[in-house]
Amino acid sequence: MRFRIPLFLAACLSIFSCRVFDQASRHGFQGGYYRMDTGKEGQTDRVYVDVLDTAVFVYQNPTAGLQRPDLVFPLGLTRLAIPAPLVFRKQSLDIDISTILLKYRPNTEGMPAQLHTDMNVALFAGWRHDRYRLVVNTDPLGRREAAWNSLGFDFGGFLGTGSTFVGPFTTANRTQAEYNGMIMQAGLAGFIESDIASFGLAAGIDQLMNRDRAIWIYNRKPWIGFMVGIALN
């Protein structure tokens, strides 16, 4: 399979993604629609959640204009009774700017396996699953402290660019020149999510963007790596 991606296509993807970053790349517990566990096995309700610093307001049937919340859950220290466990779930599109910190390339053409840390950047898009659980702890004075425990994961694809060393070692001595060449990279990745950053494993291929691609021993050869993604807002 040939791996030729015109640069204008990558630019178009980047321009399009900028229009959806505000809705797609927010990590952490934010206001919006969620599925709330009802406490019965396998049953959830669709609710709208308004998240403030001191409390979380839940609206089961939101309408335009002012409305009293159906449920209120105070955060921080309180003596009020707080139902627990309370779980909210959400699925959404996730678009991040990512980088592969480490690339492991298997041995090829008689050369030993390599671990590369070359500079690169990629646009990642995947389907994100989030789970937010209200955790309540009681101190020796009987005060309850409520906080959110979050866990997210997603799986998707990435497309990007970067640099790589080209020389006698990476061309099986077919050239004596040494330089950093530009590559295009693409592949699949799975992430474990936090509020700000994403950490995961990736598998992909690279193509050298000059005529030495014909002698570069890693051209369109699979690699695996450790990837980090950063939300843009």
Features:
single chain, 233 residues, mainly beta, six-stranded antiparallel β-barrel, elongated
Q: Mean of residue pLDDT? A: 82
Secondary-structure class: mainly beta
Low-confidence stretches: 1-25
Number of helical segments with 4 or more residues? 2
Q: Determine the N-to-C terminus distance.
A: 36 Å
Major sheet characteristics:
6 strands, antiparallel, barrel
Question: In sequence order, what are the helices and strands, one letter per element?
Answer: HHEEEEEEEEEEEE
- Percent strand equals over 45%
Describe the protein's topology.
Layout: H1 7-18, H2 21-24, E1 32-37, E2 44-51, E3 55-59, E4 71-74, E5 76-78, E6 86-105, E7 114-116, E8 120-138, E9 144-166, E10 179-193, E11 197-208, E12 223-230
Antiparallel strand pairs: 1-2, 1-6, 2-3, 3-4, 5-9, 6-7, 6-8, 6-12, 8-9, 9-10, 10-11, 11-12
Describe the 3D structure:
The chain starts with 6 loop residues before the first helix and ends with a strand. It has helices at about 5-20, 20-25, and strands at about 30-35, 45-50, 55-60, 70-75, 75-80, 85-105, 115, 120-140, 145-165, 180-195, 195-210, 225-230. It has one domain (about 5-230). The protein has 2 helices and 12 strands, in the order ααββββββββββββ. The chain is mainly beta. About 5% of the residues lie in helices and about 55% in strands. It has a 6-stranded antiparallel beta barrel.
